Amino acid sequence: MKAHSFRRVLLCTALSLAPWLAQAATADKTIALSNNYAGNAWRQNMLASWDATGKQAVKDGVVAQVDAFTTAENQATEQAAQIQNLILQGYNAIVVDAASPTALNGAIKQACDAGIVVVSFDGTVSEPCAYRISMNFKQSGVAQMDYLAQRFPQGANVLEVRGLAGVSVDELIHSGIVAGAQKYPQLKIVGTVNGNWSQTAAQKAVAGVLPSLPKVDAVVTQGDDGYGTAQAFSAAGRPTPVVIFGNREEELSWWKQQRDAHGYQSFSISSAPSISSLAFWVAQQVLDGKQFPHDLESPAATVTQETLDASLQGLPKGGIVSQPVSVDDLARLKPAATAAN
Amino acid sequence: MNASNPLPLAATQRPAPRERARLLRSALPGVSLAVLLVAIFIMQPRAMSYLGLNLMLNLAVPIALATMAQMLIITVNDLDLSLGSFISFVACVAATVLGPHPWLGSLALLGCIAVYAALGALVHGRNLPAIVVTLGMSFIWMGAAILLLPSPGGAAPAWLQGLVRIKTPLLPLAIFVCMGIALLMHAFLARSTLGVILRGAGGNPQAIGRRGWSLLRIKAGLYGLAGTFGVLSGLFLVGLTTSADANIALRYTLLSIAGVILGGGEFVGGRVSAVGAVLGALTLVLAGSLLSFLHISPDWQIGAQGAILILVLALRAGVNRLEARP
User: Which chain regions cross the lipid bilayer (chain B) (predicted)?
Assistant: First the structure.
């Protein structure tokens, strides 16, 4: 019979597609990225990573649609409105790099109540129904001080360059630096400035505070500020201290140049911008029905004197050290120690 | 026109086109909002529901309240550059002090209003430019907010969260609140005697002063009222977001100015419209939604938002010329 053979063909097709279907149970799902800021190298790299992963996933039929939305003014209220618009547009999952860990909670809760999977990363949100993926920022502050303690066993004057005042990541890294200063009393914080995670702002801020400071042996930073800091020192004609970098290409190039010229040594640590791809895969897997703890810790990317050349290899201008992320990398994610840190 | 007998004709016919232009002018904010709404409903039919309207408009209420505050300041020819940081500060107070110590919190908020009234008195008494005074205040509010809440957090009192989430019948709460503010303030400013005097203080302060009204009290009163709306805006905002952040409402400074201007207000004292200002605030919020539904690339969104603003203002300039034509 015609209908019978037709059914058989259907069955055969279904069987041959079975391994495929297992992976593509999310083939009709849509995922959106809500991003609060795109004005520095890290965010640009993060968006590029999201874009690449998303396009590939759509091409492979893993999901139906992947979009990215960035707010114009880095304001929590604007992003809350944006998330509410995304709910209206019927996305199945919303991935968020949040302007504030708390001010979006109302909108995030509305998304969860509408049955939407919410995954926050980098700038995470404290609303319990969302997933959080973040580097251990406090630990990254401690790691900087660990390195300096080993470089300066006799003690050193340290300048701290902080990020944007009132933003949680800045507070977390700062708490790590403070903890490090308590752990190593020989490291003395002689000054603190806000570099706002921008090379130019950092250069201006450091140049402004330098005349009032004693000899500075080392500078701890938060990323996107190490190069500007080093420039401020050389412009003021002061000896270049050990500046801890944040994995940016310009910083690493400068480091390499200084190393080749007079054996400059340093250390670099930052969150890898491919964390956006990690968040994408978590969202996709949760849509697929997999279980994850709600607080996940992503590994930090570091560059040492030994790995400097290898890290610079193939790093594009304006790039940041990162590693491509695939769905298999989710296995490496550790549950974070405490909720929202 | 009829040259042989101009006088009676001029008296009966000339006002007609000017009336029409004035009508057109006051209808413009409403018309632009309606056009935006229709465009949104076509783009995203899901928005045409209780849930959809609620999602799109609930964050418009604090902006509408902020716009109302800004409008009161603009009434007397001044501009408030501290409004955004003031609202952020109020949100921080509400998220930290108001819950555990309701009396202390309420007292602090009343104090905020008193500070605003004092600012009005200062601006008038010392004849200082309001822009400079409020710019200075913006740093003070911002610093106070960071001192109160160094890192984002806190929790809005449960009653406040419940209040802003009330599910009203037929239409979402946001629409009722916006209509309420608009009509109340319209009745006050355009229909009451006091309102006329307040607007007059912006349009022709000398005349009002000569009539024996105290300009100091008028300015202090208007600033105090603006502070009250600022406090309401902060409370409503923190109720929606559930917790605060020292930077939470910085954007409201410029949004509120844009809202007043979009709604037909002018930087020439006394020419403001309460209904228009609320419609202007809603237009700004919905323009953001429309751009998001259109899938316009984020790089272009800021520019597109500006283009919508310029378009509406250009339309108004056209209407104004129609009105001015003899």
Answer: 23-43, 55-74, 81-98, 104-123, 130-150, 170-189, 220-242, 248-268, 275-296, 302-319
Q: A6 falls in which pLDDT band (50, 70, 90)?
A: low
Q: What pLDDT sits at residue B315?
A: 84
Nearest by CB to residue A84, choosing from B56, B151, B302, is: B56
Task: For residue A318, name the pLDDT band (cuts at 50, 70, 90).
Answer: confident
Task: Say if A24-134+272-300+322-335 and A137-244 have the same CATH topology.
Answer: yes
Predicted interface score ipTM higher than 0.85: no
Number of inter-chain CB pairs under 8 A, A vs B: 116
CB distance A106–B252 less than 8 Å? no
Residue A130: name the closest of A120, A140, A115 by CA. A120
Are residues A80 and B44, on separate chains, in Cβ contact within 8 Å?
Answer: no
Q: Is B1 exposed, middle or buried (0-12, 13-18, 19+ CB in 10 A)?
A: exposed
- Whether the pLDDT of residue A331 is over 70: the answer is yes
* Helix H or strand E encompassing A301: strand A300-303
CB distance from A88 to chain B under 8 Å? Answer: yes
Which of A77, A104, A109 has its CB closest to that of B251? Answer: A77
Q: How far is A322 from chain B (nearest CA, A)?
A: 24
Q: The whole model's pTM is what? A: 0.78
Q: Write out chain A residues lying below 8 Å of B285, CB-based.
A: 81
Residue A5 pLDDT class (50, 70, 90 cuts): low
Question: Which one, of B279, B186, B232, B302, lies nearest residue B83 by Cα?
Answer: B232
How near does any CA of chain B get to the CA of A39, in Å?
11
Q: Could you confirm whether domain A24-134+272-300+322-335 is CATH 3.10.450.350? A: no
Do the beta carbons of residue A80 and residue B59 sit within 8 Å?
yes
**What is the per-residue pLDDT across B234-292, written as a single tens digit (0 to 9) for each?**
999 999 988 888 888 988 998 899 899 888 887 777 788 899 999 999 998 888 888 88
State how far residue A165 is from chain B, nearest Cα, in angstroms: 8
What backbone phi and psi angles, to 5 degrees, belong to B190?
A: -95, -25
Closest chain A residue to the Cα of B164, Cα to Cα: A106
Q: Which CATH superfamily is domain A137-244 in?
A: Response regulator (3.40.50.2300)
